[in-house]
Prior knowledge:
By secondary structure, the protein is of the alpha+beta class. Helices cover 32% and strands 24% of the residues.
Amino acid sequence: MTSYAPADEQEAAAIVAQAAGRSEPLRLVGGGTKATFGRPPHDEATLSATRLSGITLYEPAEMVVAARAGTPLAEVEALLAGRGQMLPFEPMDHRPLLGSTGEPTFGAVAAANNSGPRRINAGAARDSLIGVRFVNGRGQPIKSGGRVMKNVTGLDLVKLMAGSWGTLGLLTEVTFKVLPVQEQVATLVLPGLADAAAVEALAAALGSPFELTGAAHLPAGIGGPEPRTLMRVEGFAKSVSYRIGELRRLLRRYGEAHVVEAEESGALWRAVRDATPLAEPRDAAIWRISTAPTRGPAVAAAIGGERAARWFYDWGGGLIWLATDEADDAGAGVIRAAVKAAGSGHATLVRAPETLRAAVPVFDPLPEPLMRITAGIKAAHDPAGIFNPGRMYAGV
């Protein structure tokens, strides 16, 4: 298979224009850590962003950072940490769950809208993404957005590229807003709660004025022998101490809570972020299910009533990570029926063998009107259909 690795945006544009001219499908890749995410590729060549590397802008006072798409994420995070700043949305590292190698890249964070536990407080990656440069399917370099947040009239290409999984263009540079690292981080842990009570407790905490930056529940056997309900509080030390105390009083009816800090707290949230409690066994299919937070326990119970499954909750119950057997359709019918019965949400098949990802829709099937819009946007940006064809939806 042919492999292209352009050194700059101009070279990338020339490669894409030539590929479009001969209808050569391209698999867009960064560090390769999410190569098995999505439907199996239908490509004839790879187009890698790894040589498009380097930080192009960092203004700590303005809290803005920009880097070329192939820049290792760790490089950007180290630069920010050196100035007491961070990416607000806590991007997931897919390597533990997918068993992949390579190095996560900055552009892939935007392409996958890669967002972790802090999303409930700071929003998703797309909410902090303020500028992109990319090469469209005609081989044209495109710039959208800039260095400040602003209102947009018409088609917002910045937000459109976030979560498009390389199907609309090759990102060459992305710009994000950043936030200060907080002085203190503490996690309040409530032990022993069943799912419904845990999500009820999380809802009470999230609805309080005491501002959580993480809200998760790990049932028994998920990362530990007993259930644990986790609430993260960040800020100045005095503020954290006060809010933890108030949350303890607010949640007293749910049991006696204890506090973990420093590395123990960090390890808990990295496990939630990266879904590591479900990484083993490797032959289990992994689903990422989004629903209304208060409906999370009912959705999980409906699935568990139909097939053997293990799960935990993030985002106050609104995100369910679920592992189940790969047999049949890996539970696709049962899972999507449970989500539909809840009234809202979607389910994404994150990990499964290639044959299963070819047979089962990986992303939630779109209603016909939305599929027409999706196909129209794809055709407008990639008229020859060369970028990651079929990765998200068959024929698109």
